[in-house]
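It is worth pausing here to work through a concrete case rather than discussing structure prediction in the abstract. The textbook approach is simple: state the sequence, then state the predicted structure, then interpret. We follow exactly that order.
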Amino acid sequence: MVLASRTVVAISLLLSLPAAAQAPSAPVPGGTANAQPSHATQSVQEALKTTVSNAQLKMGDLDPWQKKIFVEEAVPQYQRFIRDYRVQGSNVQAEVDLDILKKYLAFHMNPKDNKKQETRLAVYVKGDGDCEKCSGSTSKLRSLVLSRVERRGFTPVFISPDDLNTATGKTFDEKVLSVAIRKGWIGAMVLQTSIAPKDDQDAAHADENEYVVRTSIGIPSIGVKQENQLRVLESESLEVAAARLMTDTFTDLGARTLAATLQKVGEESGEEIALNVTGIRDYHQYSQLRMVLVSKIQEVGSLDERKIARGKATFAIKTQKTAADVKAKLVSLMVDQAHFTVMDAGSTDKSIEAEIR
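Step two, the predicted structure:
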């Protein structure tokens, strides 16, 4: 995977656009999915959408896939990229958060060096069988996930309940990820909808159902394991909530991409430290180990896989830090409910010995 990066001005954009009617200053409205806006409110929203659309001119030279995401995702979700706005007379002054936009457009799985890269992503969309609204939204939610991941270079593969019969892991997300790992795929994404427990619902809406929309994504090779969820009222759309969660997910991945790009620049003149790990029980535990290590090591450098053998693995850590600094990042780690222990015996300035116990 190449971490996509483009030179983009990371500042806010302030534009003035005409509004058909005056409205008071306010933060970006959340509203409900089925609310009917007044003519004045609708005019303001149209102005805000136009502002975000025009912000593409300030984003620098975008790749075709970035332009597609901007047009098909960012503009329709324009409210997520407005930092603030003011209505004065017949004008709407809107401040676009270009930094968030830059992060949202940064992540893609397609390597630019044309090296072979696994891109298959296990996808499972699950609606509570006792929830009519959940099951009725499943088809649209599947289409939403499909379009979002394909635009970012993944090859989505929807798995069935039968695929989970031999899955491992305690949580549903872990079971889906284990299927992906067993098949040699890059990772997994899960989207679940359900009715919120009655004793956990807002008292102000006690007479109507509330729902929970939850997403998770796991990509062991780049240390990604993320979960997000939203509460949704009866009058609100599950699809809108799911879109918001996926926007948060890919914004976070984009932030990681940009941070890794900056880190890579610093590593070019750095040293390579070997990390030798023993006591690895099986491939599932190895995948969990790699995810934990990538997450920790990205703070000081990058992690490359060098060699895998029965019960052990060797990694190369590229960093400008010392072995002592790297070891400090690896203290008190847990891998699949087992302790990751860094050992003094055998460790040097160029290598670190560790064991899973």
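Step three, interpretation. Helices lie at 39-54, 64-74, 98-104, 132-150, 172-183, 238-267, 283-297, 323-329. The CA atoms of residues 49 and 78 lie 5 Å apart.
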